[in-house]
Design a protein that fits this description.
Blueprint: H1 15-26, E1 30-34, E2 39-42, H2 51-59, H3 64-73, H4 75-79, E3 86-88, E4 99-106, E5 109-117, H5 125-164, H6 171-180, E6 190-195, H7 202-214, E7 220-226, E8 229-234, H8 241-260, E9 266-269, H9 279-296, H10 315-323, H11 330-342, H12 346-355, H13 360-367, H14 371-385, H15 392-409
Antiparallel strand pairs: 1-2, 1-5, 3-4, 4-5, 6-8, 6-9, 7-8
Helix pairs in contact: 1-5, 7-8, 12-13, 12-14, 13-14
């Protein structure tokens, strides 16, 4: 078949009809995706298709393992930079056969992709040029979907802000609003906040949206941005939601670093709840985690969830009580005075000992002292502070007050 002019000139009633036309011209199965790899049209195919295409059609989105492989292999970075077709060799580990792909552009932004599965043949240079024409012809149809999607996202984000600020507080009303906007509910959820080093640019927002739309680790029910924060409502699926949310957070931060070279992402998530009127509470708790991370740094570097903060949950309340003169800890005062006078590290020794679950060998290794030296220091601590090291209540009180003093010093 030879085409003297553009084989895609003319009107098409739907993107499905257009996908079939591209498939007829190139004699290969075709899929059309939006910029976040959600399937928006696909052609009919003969008996052969590869597992990646089958999985995409069934789930209406490209599997995350396929997206990850295409990033590592370099295909997606190339498609985000070039208007030329990109040849993608097979990636057998994820069931991906040989393909050619081309981006669909709106000005300087990619709004979709056309993927052509090469079935026992290789596209000729002329067919590669036709594929470029197909990308231009698809633009208006994909753009219509893009504009409708953006308008819906604006309405959804407005609803999310109302929930984050308790402007809608009745559970039935919240669920009615979610249903009206076709937003699924889930048995459990938590508000997650990612905080970047500077205010988000439009380009960063696109990159973040891409990651959130393509992740299949946890369902993202809602998300929005605020200055340098990305706020989302995640719905963990297992009976270990804290572990699940922490894994998602670490994966998100790693991908921002690997794919987009964005570092220094802090994150916190609030309590996991099942009642939607508690979205605002979960949001406040997520912000509290971030505030503590800013003050305490490495002390809670690997802690992301409000429920994982332990004693730190109470620090603002305790600090207020302390400032009102509600209590002092004579044991800590004595140790601080002794350290200052003798240039010793008894307070640090006790803190490190408790940090390491009272494991003498680990503590000695961290402090770079002999275990016998550690034993001597602990005895001095007990004598100077008049502290019973066999009484857990006394030890916990001293430990909390040491941490609280550090927290107070960091303002």
């Amino acid at each position: 078949m030879s085409y003297d002019t553009d084989p895609f000139r003319g009107e098409f009633d739907s993107l499905e009809e257009f996908a079939d036309r591209v498939s007829d011209v190139l004699k290969c199965p075709v899929t059309i995706e939006d910029a976040n790899h959600r399937l928006i049209a696909y052609s009919a195919h003969d008996d052969y298709t590869d597992p990646a295409r089958t999985a995409t059609i069934i789930s209406r989105r490209v599997p995350e393992k396929v997206i990850n492989s295409l990033w590592k292999q370099g295909a997606i970075p190339a498609l985000l930079k070039s208007r030329e077709p990109v040849r993608v060799p097979p990636i057998h580990d994820v069931g991906l056969g040989s393909r050619v792909a081309v981006s669909i552009w709106k000005n300087d932004e990619v709004i979709g992709f056309i993927w052509v599965l090469e079935t026992n043949r290789t596209l000729s240079p002329e067919e590669m040029e036709w594929l470029k024409l197909a990308a231009k012809a698809a633009k208006n149809k994909v753009l219509q979907l893009y504009m409708r999607k953006n308008k819906k996202e604006e309405r959804v984000q407005e609803l999310f802000w109302k929930l984050l600020t308790s402007h809608i507080a009745a559970e039935d009303e919240i669920r009615a609003h979610l249903a009206a906007m076709q937003i699924p509910t889930a048995p459990q959820f938590a508000v997650v906040v990612f905080r970047f080093a500077a205010d988000l640019t439009a380009e960063m927002e696109r990159q973040i949206s891409y990651l959130l739309q393509t992740t299949q680790q946890i369902p993202i029910l809602l998300y929005t941005t605020d200055g340098r924060d990305v706020i989302l409502l995640g719905a963990p699926k297992t009976d270990q939601p804290l572990k699940e949310l922490s894994a998602f957070i670490e994966s998100f931060a790693a991908k921002m670093k690997e794919r987009f070279h964005i570092h220094d992402v802090q994150c916190g998530f609030g309590g996991v709840y099942s009642v939607y009127r508690l979205i605002e509470k979960s949001y406040r708790e997520a912000l509290a985690v971030l505030a503590l991370k800013e003050k305490l740094g490495d002390e809670i570097k690997s802690v992301y969830g409000y429920a994982q903060l332990g004693i730190y949950q109470f620090f603002d309340f305790l600090l207020e009580q302390k400032r009102q003169g509600e209590w002092t800890n004579p044991a800590l005062t004595k140790l601080q005075s002794y350290d200052q006078k003798h240039h010793s590290d008894l307070v640090k020794t006790f803190e490190t000992f408790f940090d390491h679950n009272e494991n003498a060998q680990e503590t000695a290794d961290v402090l770079n002292v002999h275990p016998n030296t550690l034993a001597y220091r602990l005895k001095r601590i007990a004598d100077i502070a008049e502290l019973d090291l066999n009484d857990m209540n006394q030890k916990i009180k001293l430990y909390i007050d040491i941490k609280l003093a550090k927290y107070e010093a960091r303002g």
